[in-house]
Amino acid sequence: MRDPKTEKELTNPAGTPAWVQWGYRGLFNLGLGLSAPYYARRMARRGGWKDRLGQRFGRYDNSFIQRCHGQTNLWFHAVSVGEVLLSVPLVKRLENKLPSVQWILSATTTTGMAQWHQQMPGPPATCFYPIDRRPWVRQSMEVIRPKAIILSEAEIWPNFLWEAFDRRIPVFLINARISEKSYLRYHRFRSIFAPLFGSLSGVGTQNDSDAQRLMALGCDSSKVFVTGNMKFDAALGSQSRPSTLDIPALLRAHDMHEKTLLLGSSTHAGEEAMLADLYLKLRQSHPQLRLIIAPRHFERGSQIATALRSKELSVACRSEWSDASEDSREKPSDVLILDSTGELASLYPHVDLVFIGKSMLARGGQSPLEAASAGKPILMGPHMQNFRAITRTFLEKQAARQVSDVASLQTTLTELLEHPQERDRLGKAARDVVDANLGAVERTLEMLCQHPSIAEHLTP
Predict the structure, then answer these.
(1) Alpha-carbon distances of 117 from 77, 113, 123, 239, rounded to whole Å
(2) Distance in angstroms (rounded) separating the CA atoms of residues 87 and 440
């Protein structure tokens, strides 16, 4: 007969064999050592990497430790800017329903952390998500001691989840999306991930396909709920948030306030030059046209500006503008680069056409929802794999245009520039799609609040 202590050492509550855990930890530590120089350079380029760096290794200052001590803490994690923004309405609703608990809000990126502080009243209790090495994760759990953990989308890190399950902490996955590529990767390593998925206390998925994939990966079917995509709610909410940027003043400063504006939204490498070349062709017959580029990674702004100036274009950068008073106007610009974070949503209402980045010369696509919630006509390239279901909905409702290559993008842009009534129709149809898909926040809230670990803290 096995000793119960020995039995516990062989598996954890997620049912993962000890040899699988040891194997993962060994490989992760090796990979972490090999990749550390790359990630260090990447963080240095993006800036702000010194901010609370120790938290990524499970080390916290006394003020954070004291803030966590003796409190009923619930931990909510969102990776970066997009996940934080879609989570804010849900967290605010949870705060109203659970006034006696303290929410620990974490992010992986510095830009995500900045959004928590910008969007939440506070100062909120925040920390960076620990790197998935066992000692660092264990120390984080020891300091925060959460009663429950909520993960946004598909942030699955084995050591983090094993530690939570060892401590009998309920873990929820919300707004979950599993692409076909991710599904195949998780399925290939089922010995690691199937027990993890199976031990989740609740899963809210974006659609039926995501629910089926997660159940096939090991999630308990009785704990999987199709709650919808919270990005629709967040996109609509983004239009009502007060802007930190005076967009009309910015446009007047560059003589763009009465022009036809084409926006390249969340563009990736190569797409800026592509749009600039198209702009040079289109402005010959549409002299009122101007181009705005919002790169997905704002730190590329100066590099993009240099490249476009070599095409003899007049280029201005948002980062170089601070005041649009009458005596500080700048000269007219052909191209404006929005090299900043958290300001793109406030720009959409002021543009006339939106091209969705990472869809033509890069793969995966970016979200079209904020542009749609502003009622703008949307164009996208053929590579929208990361938003497959959303893209299909927009195309079925004739609420966006998808093109196959640069030539067809030029043809479609020409058509829409010459037919403003079709631009209006596309924009209205896009907004109608958003309106028809609202309610995911409420359904997610209902799923979470029915679990005992959260329900016990509800206000009577």
Answers:
(1) 14, 7, 7, 19
(2) 11
